[in-house]
Fold these 2 entries.
Entry 1:
Amino acid sequence: MSDSIHAQHRARFLDLLAERNAVAVIPTATTKTRNDDADYKFRPTSDFWYLTGLNEPGACLVLLPGEDGEPHRSVLFLRERDKLREIWDGRRLGLERAPEALGVDTAMDIEELWTELPKLLEGRERIMWRFGDDDVADRRMVETFTSLRNLARGPVEPAKELLDTGPVLHELRVIKSDAELELMRRAARLSAETHAALMRHVQPGMNECEAEAFLDHGYRSAGSSGAAYSHICAGGANACILHYIENDQPLKDGDLLLVDSGAEWHYYAADITRTFPVGGKFTAEQRALYQVVLDVEEAAIAVSGPNVPYDRIHEVALGVIVDGLLEHGLLKGTREEALESGSYREFFMHKTGHYLGLDVHDCGRYTTPGGASRPLEPGMVFTVEPGIYVDPENMEVEARWRGIGIRIEDDVLITEEGHEVLTGDVPKAIHEVEAMCAAATDAKG
Ligand code: GLY
Ligand code: MN
Ligand code: MN
């Protein structure tokens, strides 16, 4: 469909390329081997998906802004249809159907990419390409550029610059359109519903892997392509390992379960964390630290709005977290000393959030070109995710705090008026969380 969001993205990117007298070459991902002859499920690169909506391997988009009043042109290289290969590996869109289905101007055989590319790019001075994704393709692109640069000896304008695609394309991706936000809301809603259902489902004696399976079932059975990143289902002190993905330990009464998980919708990610008591009731220490994290999260969300520098959110979070850690005796000294020395990093060692979009840690600059913190704008989506993690081996704190790990994470959209929390439907106030967990006990009878 030529009016698809992907066609709109292409049109906007082509205008930016035209302003910069540049063309862009955007390949998709290669299929990755898992082990032996088994592959990981294919997932297009986010840049390629953003601009095409095609989720097949073996494809590359070439965007050519019109010169001298000519219209812009998009050329898609993709795989030819092949009956035998399609029986083994799956359906292919094919060259014939691609222009109608995706709205590109021309479709060409991916087998001819490196022979046709120099002809398409001849006479263009600037070429955008994303280095670092695929060494083999990087080398071929350098060869192509070199051959075009050598045209300096002839009558054709030689290529002069090979530029990173990111700074221009990723700035487009930072600000989400209404159509993209519809997809992100869908990812957020599905993730929120599944998190809430998981709170009702978990019981002492289950294993972390059952929580992971429950999330997968919720996402996939609703038609999502699945999780946007590896789920973290961390019981007890496992929550103090920030990227804990083993998810294979028993869940014990008296422990907390930290669940960091989000669904993808149309490859747009949600990213939610909730931490709740496996047995349904917070202990006094869990409750105390949970309330600090919740206060931090709410303060950080409250300050989010247009024109607020992005770093302000982290600054606000640090102030509230330090106050809470001092109040409970986990930190010593004054607020100023803790902020100055960074002693809080023993308990809160990550940033308060990140952009969210097609990638869970989405692209885009966090600073202005001058190096200042970037002012937030309507259409930006990011996470707010403070946490407190008390190392189980931390002998500097009272034993009762050790091994408690808590994070609360929501997805926030900046609007003209302020902000909107996309994931607000999962309980997070202590009484709401306990009520949701109790619903599980009742249901199990
Ligand atoms: N789940 C990755 C993150 O929260 O950043
Ligand atoms: Mn997360
Ligand atoms: Mn996150």
Entry 2:
Amino acid sequence: MVENALATKKTGGLAGVIAGQTAISTVGKEGIGLTYRGYDIGALATSASFEEIAWLLIYGELPDETELNHYRQRLMQLRTLPAGLKQALEAIPATAHPMDVLRTGCSMLGTLEPESDTHTQTDIADRLLATLPGMLVYWYQFQYNGTRIDTTSDEETTAGYFLHLLKDKKPEASLRRALDVSLVLYAEHEFNASTFAARITASTLSDFYSCIVSGIGTLRGALHGGANEAAMELITQFKTAPEAEAGIRKMLLEKQKIMGFGHRVYKISDPRSDIIKLWSEKLAETAKEGYLYEVSAAIEKVMWEEKHLFPNVDFYSATTYHFCGIPKFFFTPLFVMARVAGWSAHIIEQRKDNRLIRPDAVYTGPMPRPFVLLAQRG
Ligand code: COA
């Protein structure tokens, strides 16, 4: 029993456990790399748009120009929200977290347009990619400004579409591309917790929407997707770099976790962080609160000096989104809008060669004992 318990502690949180096969991405090979379908994330983030990446992940190859144009047109045509979904969104209170809005919106869409032979898994993946931004902003504008927005738009990219809906005007090119790059970076990450949750749900032969809802619920937590919001909360506590350095040293002395740092798989650096950091720096030059970039850089410096911990993708995504004028509580939902591509690819892959995912546990409870009737307990 002791030996088994030790084995479990060593592999706590399933660290280092190989839980299946995938042809979709690699994470942390040689401690640093990230590839989608064999392509390096650096090249993808420099030259590809989010829609190309979604296609690559879901269909397995990069689209050619005609395929990409058709795909963009298709997603644009799928942006209309059904009346029943709008009613459900209007019933969600303003006090709800936007992650709850996406979780509920996805679930509601699943009741209105359930998976079937004529509404297939890829139809649903496309529909969710197209409607998640609209669901979020529809709810937001209804609850916060009392307006029922039209969720159609002539913006071709998901990033441009989201910003257009949110601000009700055409976004600047730099903001549109910054968000587009961030969606590319967030789109996929092998057997991370939310993808694994989606795969577990798929492994029970559940429907596509249920798999995605599992993913959304799992992504919400601060140790996973919720870290970008938590990082923003941290960064905005400080007004200057020296203040941030002192504050972080104090937090580390108090054994507090610094959100947006560390990673289960990457050991040297998170390759997505350097890419999004450049965007944060670029946008800071003209942003109203550009000093927050200096604050972030100071936090990064202290974390390296004190703990040898590097920023993960969430840390500089936070200021990048802030400089795009996006409210903090939309940061994790943006992660969902991107990761739905990766989740979809994984659900499809899991279904192709399925076996129920059901691990074992080491039992640490009482030894077998006789049941005592209620009247005799006491
Ligand atoms: N701030 C301070 N210390 C941290 C830390 C952080 N962000 N991340 C890890 N550490 C420390 C832990 O305290 C622990 O120290 P100890 O061995 O002295 O107890 C050690 O590093 C290992 O951390 P642990 O939490 O056990 O690693 P993990 O692999 O289970 O967790 C994360 C990985 C990502 C959950 C963890 O790094 C974390 O909580 N980061 C902050 C949340 C975050 O940014 N999540 C997004 C991930 S992309």
